[in-house]
Write a structure and sequence with these properties.
336 residues, alpha/beta, 434 Repressor (Amino-terminal Domain), Rossmann fold, 3 domains, 6-stranded parallel beta sheet, 6-stranded mixed beta sheet, 12 helices, 12 strands, 44% helix, elongated
Length: 336
């Protein structure tokens, strides 16, 4: 048997009040006295009343809901970003609807359409590794739905974004390895259509150039971020006559998969080959040897992205690009 939803009219009938009085009491308006508010709130709880969000949207044109699209919820970086977003949204009376693209452009498009159909007030998005077209995001502007990029962004789009300085951070990570005495530093990249991959590769190349070190194209390989793809890249490194003595990986997951496969192949880390990652995920302290990494302020990134989106929701005139860049730091551990 399908249970009917309790309405404002049902509460009003039970308490012998007008519907408008019940509505104002539930909205905590000061024109309703405290005794009446308490009676209405108690009745609403006893009757298991839930507000009709769609009806509220029709009336106010606001759902007080924000959509979030991330490539992979299992990655600590993105779950930490979401925690920052959720804290900020709850403090400001907003809820989150969280979607996962699974690194798929088609799934990302579906997520955006679903959020749009759900009447969200705005969207926070980090792009999938396949995203090379942006029509599904551009059309949000036609529907006056603001959105903000974080971490993985479309650099040429006229929209706000919250990022780290990927080029500078990669430069510093490469320079750290150089100062540790490594002379044959490889860069294990991700899909080069992603801005973070292009910029980190640029930082790596600039650091080598700055220290008059050779750039060997055999040492720059592209993983699709999966474990299998990373293992293929490692095997390719190990087959080289002039193999690298250190690997800077695009993120911690790739770096950890490097360590696992190198150990499987009998390579001593860091004596024979050092490994460094990006993110500082919790597992980086658990893997043996512990992973040296570039710490990204993921929680703060989520908070700042949510704050910017709320600003654009409240003031549509702000819907223009503003770039927020957060600092990183190197966390030194045993893998280097």
């Amino acid at each position: 048997m399908i249970r009917e939803h309790v309405t404002l009219k049902d509460i009003a009938k039970k308490l012998n009040l007008s519907v408008s009085t019940v509505s104002r009491a539930l909205s905590d308006l000061p024109i309703i006295n405290e005794e009446t508010k308490k009676k209405v709130l108690l009745a609403a709880k006893e009757m298991d009343y839930h507000p009709n969000l769609f009806a509220k949207f029709l009336k106010t044109k606001s759902s007080n809901t924000i959509g979030v699209v991330v490539p992979d919820l299992e990655m600590h970086f993105f779950s930490s970003c979401i925690s920052g977003m959720q804290n900020t949204c709850l403090e400001n009376g907003y809820n989150l609807i969280i979607c996962q693209s699974n690194e798929s452009l088609e799934q990302e498009k579906f997520n955006i359409k679903t959020l749009q159909d759900s009447r969200v007030d705005g969207i926070l998005i980090s792009l999938s590794r396949e995203t090379n077209s942006f029509d599904h995001l551009e059309q949000l502007k036609d529907h006056q739905i603001p959105f903000v990029y974080f971490d993985r962004v479309h650099e040429n789009g006229p929209y706000s974004q919250v990022v780290i300085n990927d080029e500078e951070s990669s430069f510093e990570a490469t320079e750290y390895l150089i100062h540790k005495g490594y002379k044959k530093i490889a860069f294990l990249c991700g899909p080069k259509i992603l801005s973070i991959c292009k910029n980190r590769l640029m930082g790596y190349q600039n650091a080598l150039r700055n220290h008059q070190m050779d750039f060997n194209t055999d040492w720059v390989l592209e993983s699709d971020l999966s474990r299998a793809s990373t293992e293929v890249c490692i095997d390719n490194y190990l087959r080289l006559n002039d193999r690298p003595d250190a690997i800077l990986a695009i993120n911690d997951i790739v770096a950890i998969n490097c360590i696992r496969h190198l150990k499987k192949k009998g390579i001593k880390i860091p004596k024979e080959m050092a490994v460094m990652g990006f993110s500082n995920s919790p597992v980086s302290e658990v893997i043996e040897p512990n992973l040296t990494t570039v710490e990204q302020p993921s929680f703060d990134m989520g908070k700042l992205a949510a704050l910017r989106l709320l600003e654009e929701i409240r003031n549509p005139n702000l819907m223009s690009q503003k770039i927020f860049t957060l600092n990183t730091k190197i966390i030194e551990r045993d893998s280097t």
